[in-house]
């Protein structure tokens, strides 16, 4: 689900990258410290808001497991399966090797903030489709498809200049 996710993960895919592109933000000091991965990577997450939505009408559900496996339907409706691991190149980042019937790709993500039970703000970056330029996005996930932007995120969103730029997606 993470980025990991839907638009988040582009429907068109390219050969997998193994190291995080240098153009991706480092987010030093903005990544959630002490992330409890086994609490975060479990259950269903809905991608409800994005800074740069590719398919704003889409509502994507990500199924996560504690062994860092993700499953969701991509922009084209086809199932995408990803296997994640902590990224050794950047503190706080995870890399996800993803495959779909159209090929494979690697997506990198970091959890900026989460309360584990209701919401999660993520940063996702990678090279998708035919592009050779990395694309990044900030994504808000909720445990409920009807989730909104939680007031607990106001300070963090303001600091990242995202308070007015997160757009609601097709989840209801």
UniProtKB/TrEMBL annotation:
Assigned keywords, A-Z: Secreted, Signal
Main location: secreted
GO cellular component: extracellular region
Superkingdom of the source species: Eukaryota
GO biological process, one term: symbiont-mediated perturbation of host defenses
Subcellular location field: Secreted
Family per record: Belongs to the calycin superfamily. Triabin family.
Protein name: Uncharacterized protein
């Amino acid at each position: 689900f993470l980025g990991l996710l839907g638009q988040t993960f582009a429907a068109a895919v390219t050969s997998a990258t193994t190291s995080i592109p240098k153009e991706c933000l480092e987010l030093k000091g903005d990544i959630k410290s002490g992330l409890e991965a086994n609490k975060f990577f479990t259950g269903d997450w809905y991608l409800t808001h994005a800074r740069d939505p590719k398919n704003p009408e889409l509502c994507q559900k990500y199924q996560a497991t504690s062994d860092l496996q993700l499953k969701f339907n991509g922009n084209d409706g086809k199932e995408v399966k990803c296997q994640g691991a902590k990224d050794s190149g950047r503190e706080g980042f995870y890399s996800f090797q993803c495959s779909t019937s159209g090929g494979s790709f690697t997506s990198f993500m970091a959890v900026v903030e989460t309360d584990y039970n209701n919401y999660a703000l993520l940063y996702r970056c990678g090279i998708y489709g035919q592009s050779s330029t990395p694309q990044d996005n900030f994504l808000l996930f909720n445990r409920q498809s009807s989730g909104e932007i939680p007031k607990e995120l106001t300070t963090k969103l303001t600091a990242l200049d995202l308070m007015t730029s997160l757009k609601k997606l097709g989840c209801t």
